[in-house]
Amino acid sequence: MSKSPEVKLVNVPSPNFVPEKDAGKPLVLEAAHLGIDFGGLVAVDEFNIGIGATEICGLIGPNGAGKTTIFNLLTKVYEPTRGTIMIGGRDTHNMTPVQVNQMGIARTFQNIRLFDKLSVEENVKIGLHNHIGYHTLSGVFRLPAYWKEEKKAHEKALELLDIFGMADLANVTADSLPYGAQRRLEIVRALATGPKLLLLDEPAAGMNPSETEELMNNIRKIRDEFQIAILLIEHDMNLVMGICESIVVLNFGRIIAKGTPSQIQGNPQVIEAYLGTHRG
Amino acid sequence: MNIYKNASVASKKAFLNYAIVILFFVVFQTLVNTGSITSALKGQLIPIVCYMIMAVSLNLVVGISGELSLGHAGFMSVGAFTAVIVSALMSGASNSSRLFVSILVGAAIAALAGFLIGIPVLRLNGDYLAIVTLAFGEIIKNILNCLYVGIDDKGVHFAFNNPNALGMDPLGKEIIKGPMGAVGIKKIATFPAAVILLLVVLIIIQNLVNSRTGRAIMAIRDNRIAAESMGLSPMKYKMLAFTVSASMAGAAGAIYALNISTLVPKKFDFNTSILVLVFVVLGGIGNMTGSLIAAGVLVVLPELLRKFSDYRMLVYAIVLILVMLVTNNEKLKGRLDTFVKKLGMRISKGGRKK
Amino acid sequence: MLAHLINGISLGSIYAIIALGYTMVYGIAKMLNFAHGDVIMVGGYISFYSMTLLGLPVPIAILAAVFVCTALGIVVERLAYKPLRAATSLAVLITAIGMSYFLQNAALLIWDANPKAYPNIFKNFEAVEFAGARISPFAIVAIAANLVIMIALTLFTTRTKVGKAMRAVSEDKGAATLMGINVNFTISLTFAIGSGLAAIAGVLLCTAYPTLMPTTGSMPGIKAFTAAVFGGIGSIPGAMIGGILLGIIEILARAYISSELADAIVFGVLIVVLIFRPTGLLGKQVHEKV
Asked: Which pTM does this prediction carry?
């Protein structure tokens, strides 16, 4: 199994830390005292995180710990009850999911949400939407801008699909792809929006070990090529320990531990809450 | 590598539709020129084209944007009554320029109505959206029922719910009389003009659908949450589809109105909206070719089968239900597929025997 | 003013009874049964012909209407809606519209388009004086029927086993199935009750507006759906409050603003409610799971 070399974490303004390589750069995302209640039930509380410019961070925890809720908070599907979320230094208070995406956060979904009836290429082109530079009227009247930009979008879509070797599937409808390919397409589609931070919700779910191994290499490749940060939720501990530089552990909506993979593996609280029952 | 394979499939479909419309025009224009068409059918030619425009424009909302609108006839009536007023005002101009400007203004006012109605409507989903579009359709009808318009030397006079409030010169002419509707309309619409309008509408819709904007509309239809997370604003694109569709219904209404001498608001009630929905559903939701054919056939058919006119709506209703059942129930769909396959095999076997 | 108010409440009571049918079906099958209004019309015709053609006494005629409409409701659900349990709401709604059209046009062929003059079933009763206003026997019966039906339904859904099953199915079909509840039976029962109520509403409606036509039910049906949404879809007391408020609004609008625009105003209320309080007065908020 490919294991990433242990990275040294350094403190940025407390209570966060990032890998040493990102220490000089501004944080891509910073959340402080984040919390949400659902009708009196505290689902997430006192969630603090800072993500470095090219960091791969893992968000782990037992089922029902509130991991996906955190993704929904960060992308503004839910408006938080408490706390702040800063993207690239800007407060996202009262922003919509659309604005959050335009500020540089893209995500995938735990329960796959592709545009089922559209082709693979069209799915990616929808991700590219805000980078395709022609007006609706140019499209309606088929002006030169339409042809030029559509050609560019087509090439870009194939290039992105090629990361996962899916370029030859461009004309297949999304719902006819096998499960693993659907998950990969979601990553490509999110990447097409040109994010600074990619949120991956259980990217390896339903994949076999060799697919997972390939996925790990591709996640690393994406980070290196695009120089972006990645925050991922995953139950597969081989993947998390293999590619994450830092890990945040959640239980009952609260952070119970933060640190490097080896720190987390040795943390007795984590072992009690989570690793004690883990599969690997 | 098959570059543009998708695009070419889409444009092939689009050109098929243009070809169908042009063929339809050539055939019927020839029949008219040679005098080999009944006057009843001849009178139906412009309404047929209007309903084709209505069907493809409603399909943009129902099929492409995925919202069930039950008030499409309301936009048709906005365009129709606007065109009546504009045409009456331009009594000095040539017929063709009157027709052109009337359609344009009718479409623009209908688009405005679509935009204003879209603001509240498009915040809703599913059944609620459907029932509110129905409500707006009825409100438009009620308002037009109260509308009185007259023209005299000083210009246009409007009155609401009270014909005596028009305040016109004694020589002025009332052109819209509340529930009695518009009277004395000059018939300036022509079959070729209607077909050109239909072609323009088709070009706009099909190019829109096969562009960045159309992809966005379909993405929002298929999965709103994912589309938002890709940076697509649902309101913006739903509004675009809704407004474009409303303006086209307005244009259809305009040319429809300028083809008849009297027009009552009641003509554009809920039943008309449903009739257009029937065309869309029977032609296949999202399928423009289907909408064209269904509108054409279902407007002409009752003319040809006068005897069965009592049963027409009953048959529509039954077919509507059956189509929905067969296309949406897995078991029935499977049975239909095997039936079609068997049928196909029997036909090909029969062919081989010969 | 008081007279208008009483008129409004009695009309609203009819809306409330129709709205109960909508609200129960929406709650349990998550569908807008567009054909519900036309079941009212069928109830009107059955009771009309029972009284005029067969000369049956009024209570028997009402029972006949209830019986036929109940059966009709069950048959419609089985034939048209049950096969579409897994379909999109768009497909179900179009099917329901088709069913509404089917019933109207079937009625047109069976009973023709000529309006029928519905007999006054309260002609042997005197109006009652109350605080200077005359309250017609119709108003008393409509309001009383509404109250009795609402109380009975509330007791039924909270106290009986079948009623509780109904609420369970409306919460979660899958879980209800696992608990041994017969979901198909429960849904049929809901349609049966709703349609039976529609028959009663049909008799009351035709008494209030004694012109019976194949399209009689469609407008009141849509307004009653408005009432159900107004009160909060899925809620039994909500249907009653929504119905009565809508009846009062309609009668007041007709009296003080314009009879031409009364319907437009009623629909305006629907639009305002849906925009500012989409779950209605007594409805509960539902979150979409992401």
From this structure: 0.89
